[in-house]
Amino acid sequence: MWRKIEKLQDWKENSSNSLYTIAKFNKKKSAMIKYNHTILHQRSLFMRTKTKETTLIHRRISILAMISAICIVTRLYFTWIPNVQPVTTIILFVSLYFSVFASLAVAFVTVLVTAFMLGMGYWVIGQILAFFVVVVLFHCVCKLPFTRKLLVQAVLMFLSGIIYGAVVSAFDVFIFQIDSFFAYYLAGVSFDIMHGLGNVVFYLLLKKPFELFNERYFKRINIQEEVK
Description:
It is a single chain. The protein has 228 residues and is mostly helical. It has seven helices and no strands. The chain has helices at residues 2-77, 87-97, 100-118, 123-141, 150-176, 181-187, 189-227.
């Protein structure tokens, strides 16, 4: 009789232990499942973020490549008119609506690619330096509130042509060790005036298309970057 009671107690203890073991195993299993779900969710969020970042980068590169191609073609096409071309205006529009770094990238690519067709020399460095100075100054000045007016921006476009010529002339003076900068600059100031007037004309012609382009592409990319 006592043996039966002991066997029954042993069976109850073993069954309770086995139930406890099963419950513990199920608890660990559910914890592992939750952990795996969390890891998969975080991984999917990471992949979505990376995909969005990659898409934005591709869009930026595509837009800048398209604008650079337009600058290259127009610079080559307008070579028959001395210093009159829409390149400076387009580059300044990119600085105004997109970013100063994008504008400098477009300027660098345009000057470098066209130099292979128009001629490569020391002047390429001077042109890149001139675009750098013009873009940075224009970007800094356009942060002021009164520069949003059409007339003020047209004046800035004209001055950008004058400043561009002054920087290129200063670079030439430095390279050739010319005694008088002003004499050298005044000798070619008529071309700089044509450059400035050409910038004003192209600014008035391209302002509306670039505003539409800004609404459709530039602003959308900037908003997506802020959301990201």
